[in-house]
Every structure is written in C-alpha cells, then in structure tokens.
Design brief:
CATH superfamily of the largest domain: Metalloenzyme, LuxS/M16 peptidase-like
Keywords: Hydrolase, Metal-binding, Metalloprotease, Mitochondrion, Protease, Zinc
Largest sheet: 6 strands, mixed
CATH class of the largest domain: Alpha Beta
GO molecular function, one term: metalloendopeptidase activity
Protein name: mitochondrial processing peptidase
CATH architecture of the largest domain: 2-Layer Sandwich
Structural class: alpha+beta
Order of helices and strands: HEEEHHEEHHHHHEHHEEHEHEEHHHHHEH
Family: Belongs to the peptidase M16 family.
Radius of gyration: 25 Å
Subcellular location: Mitochondrion
Distance between the termini: 40 Å
Length: 476
C-alpha cells in the first residue's frame, strides 16, 4: 500500500506540462498521503443504535460484509463459559427461514465465503462475495443473527464437534501456554477464561444458555455492520435498515454484562505444568500491557518489535535484527521466541513466548530476555527504533491486503475504540515515536513491574517466581 500511495503521489506531481511551458526543477520534499475521494471510512448510526461503517473502493469487484459484536467469552459467567463459541458453531445450522441445507446451497451457488470466529471480547460473522451478491449476503447474516433455530439435535451434534476441537487445541502447546497465561494473569475474572470453555461446560450447555446469551448480547448498540470493497455506503445503510431494524436497541445490564465491563486486574503470578514427555520448555512471560485505546498502544508495538522474534529453523536466523535474537543464536539458547503485545478494551499483556530444548540453560534464556526488557528502560538506540518502526509499518500495511482484512480492521477498531484510524494516520503516529518514548514506556510498564508466567513441558529448571520477579529491575 505504501508503494501504491507513493506511485499515486508521483503521478499527481508529474503531470505533463502545457505547450510552451517547461517543467520546474524537481525538488525532494516531505511525502504526504493523498486523501483520495471515496476511500475514507464512512459511518452511520441507525435509530436503533446499530453502527454501519464502510470503506468503498469503486474499482473493487468483490466485497466483504460482516457484523462485529462487542461480546465474546468475556461476556460469560464461569457457569456459561463456552456459550459464545458454541453459538458460533450453531450459526450455520439452520434458521426459521432457511434449513442448514438451504443455507449451504445458497452460499455455494453464490460462490461466496461465509465464516465466523469468537475471541475473548468479540464475535464476528462475515461473508465475502461479488458486489452484486452483497444484498443476499447481508440478508443471510441478518437471518443467522436473528433467527437461528438452535435445534436440540444440532446442539448435540455440535457438542461432539466442539469437544473434539477442544482436544485438538490441547495438543497445540502455544494455545495451551497462552490460555494458562491469561488464567494466571487475570485470575477469577472473565478475561482469564478460555474461549472454548471447560469440557464440563461444553457437555452441559443447553438451548436456554444459548438463547439467553443472544438476548443479552446480540443488541444493536453492541454491533457494527461493516462493508469493505465495491459496496457503496448508502447501499449498505439501506440494507441495514431493511434487515436489522428489528434488533433490540440496548443490552440488559445483567450480572454477566456488568462483570464483562468491569476493569480486569492484572495479578503477578505463575502457573507451571510440568510434563517431561514434552521435549521442550514452553514459557510465556508478560507484564500488564496496554488497552486498544491507550496512548501507549503503538509505542508498545514498537517496543515489542525491538525485542523482536527468532526462529533457528529459518535460513536468516543469525540475522533477524534484534539484539536478543543475536544473543540467543550465538549461545544456542532457544528454538524460537516471539515477543507479543496483546490488547483488550481495558488492559493487555506485553511479553515474550520462549521455546527451547536446551533444558539445562533455561535460566540463561530467561535471564537474557528479561535483561533485554531492562535495557529498554535505559539504552535504546535510534537505529533500532527506526528498524522496529519500519517493520511495524510494513506489518500493518501488509495485513490490510484484501477486503476481508480491511473489514476486520474497521470492525475491530470501531467496536473497541468507536472510530477507525486510517493507515496513513497510523503511519504518522508511528513515525513520531522516538527512542525517548520507548524508554519512557519501558520505565513505566516494564521496569520493576509484576509479571505473569506460564510454563508448560520440561520446565523443571525454570527459576522460582521470586527470582524471575527480581530480574525485572536489573542494572545492566
């Protein structure tokens, strides 16, 4: 996208001269993004509170439309944990207007793609199709959200499917480690629960819990209908008024709703699942991070990029940029590591995920990782900040390739912050971040802060919590 915008700037700046006129000498100036008409996100709120947002690209042949809902596993109680994900599975199993077979056949005949996913704070249903088929896709999405039959036979079939999915997730060590990280960092709180829910809940969820979840959370004030691609905003608003006006306007303030909106408290703690049959130690360490709308959101991402990622299986393993990756590769301390900055509506997790089969040197690996965190508070160079900023901008721009990715970006930003920053605005924010900003962030968020630790596998040699916590204020 950056190269396309640069090309557009150049084309506009190099118009052919009129007869008898010569071009002035070229001067290098500051590049400014071009605000092309029709490419900004437009937003409209219907009378019932439903937000309609779209990014219209007049030359696009396809469109993605979807509904982003401000409700996920965080909107559940301990007893109903897993309901949101269960509902996602049942969404395509038939409505009062369409049987499951009719729904599948209709989508197949359109050549469209219909999908859904659940996260801790959001549930999303979306479809991608040719522009002419968008009205039918919006009708299908509205039907799924408002008229799902939730038949007992379908519930029992999907119960078995979800139980098998749960077994598969338990085999994915990264998923297991991060679920335990959330559970220990946000103990006894909604944000600490898993998305799938415990097996005993999956086995006992009934139609009553499912319908209650819909009534409590699938309301217009907590939904955004998003369109990206060749669908004009005015047409999307008309489709919303046709299909979504019967949605309840507001959510009842149930106990689960109030708990989901209560700020989560980060708790310094650790959880260790020792299993010596696993040949690696898989460890996540995190401090309390930043929310989606925190002023430090992009600074946290730059700091994360400075710490970087590493994978010794890659051909460029010795040259992956960050100082930590150089140390880890030189001393052969890890198979891989991944820094992360995960944000939620009111808090987040900022940290690192380490995987190593060098089981007698786990303490060295963790020591170097936490020492790098301490260094961010004391000595960050302009060169590594510029590298991190370039990587971050490229990652953000490359992730917006396609109408589905754009719709995801719009829906996520509006549902979490109420507005959407354009790629150009995000670039300018990142460009303004300096090494002083990074060190200030690290001083406030990393230096001498409590940590949450999740370790799974051959983790006998991981130091105790007090020793790890003491490393959070190391003078280098």
């Amino acid at each position: 996208m950056a190269s396309r915008r640069l090309a557009l700037n150049l084309r506009q700046g190099l118009k052919a001269p009129r007869a008898g006129h010569s071009l002035p000498p070229l001067r290098r100036g500051l590049a400014t993004p071009v605000a092309a008409p029709g490419l900004k996100v437009q937003s409209t709120t219907l009378k019932n509170g439903l937000t309609v947002a779209s990014h219209y690209s007049p030359y696009a042949q396809t469109s993605t439309v979807g509904v982003w809902i401000d409700a996920g596993s965080r909107a559940e109680t301990a007893e109903t944990n897993g309901t949101a994900h269960f509902l996602e599975h049942l969404a395509f199993k038939g409505t009062t207007k369409r049987t499951q077979h009719q729904l599948e056949l209709e989508i197949e005949n359109l050549g469209a793609h219909l999908n859904a996913y659940t996260s801790r704070e959001n549930t999303v249903y979306f479809a991608k199709s040719l522009n002419n088929d968008v009205p039918q896709c919006v009708d299908i999405l509205a039907d799924i959200l408002q008229n799902s039959k939730l038949e007992e036979s379908a519930i029992e079939r999907e119960r078995d499917v979800i139980l098998r999915e749960s077994e598969e997730v338990e085999k994915q060590l990264e998923e297991v480690v991060f679920d335990h990280l959330h559970a220990t960092a946000f103990q006894q709180q909604a944000l600490g629960r898993t998305i799938l829910g415990p097996r005993e809940n999956i086995q006992e969820i009934t139609r009553t819990e499912l319908t209650n979840y819909i009534k409590s959370n699938y309301t217009a004030d907590r939904m955004v209908l998003v369109g990206a691609g060749g669908i004009p905003h005015e047409q999307l608003v008309e489709l919303a008024e046709k299909n979504f006006t019967k949605l309840p306007g507001t959510s009842p303030h149930t106990g689960a709703y109030l708990q989901s909106k209560k700020r989560s408290d980060f708790i310094g703690s650790d959880v260790r699942i020792r299993d010596d049959t696993i040949p690696t130690a898989n460890i996540a360490i995190a401090v309390e991070g930043v929310s989606w709308h925190d002023d430090d959101y992009y600074t946290a991402l730059v700091a994360q990029a400075i710490v970087g990622n590493y994978d010794k299986a890659l051909g460029n393993a010795p040259h992956q940029g960050s100082k930590l990756s150089g140390l880890v590769h030189k001393h052969e301390l890890a198979n891989s590591f991944m820094s992360f900055s995960t944000s939620y509506s009111d808090t987040g997790l900022w940290g690192i995920y380490l995987v190593s089969d060098q089981l007698t040197r786990i303490d060295d690996l963790i020591h170097f990782a936490l020492r790098e965190w301490s260094r961010l508070s004391i000595n960050v160079t302009q060169a590594e900040v510029e590298r991190a900023k370039a990587q971050l901008k490229a990652s953000i721009l490359l992730s917006l390739d396609g109408t589905t990715a754009v719709a995801e970006d719009i829906g996520r930003q509006i549902i979490t912050t109420g507005s959407r920053l354009s790629p150009g605005e995000i670039e300018r924010i990142i460009d303004n971040i300096t090494e002083k900003d990074v060190m200030d962030f690290a001083n406030r968020k990393l230096w001498d802060q409590d940590i949450a630790v999740s370790a799974v596998g051959s983790v006998e040699d991981v130091f105790d919590y007090a020793r790890l916590r003491a490393d959070m204020s190391r003078n280098i």
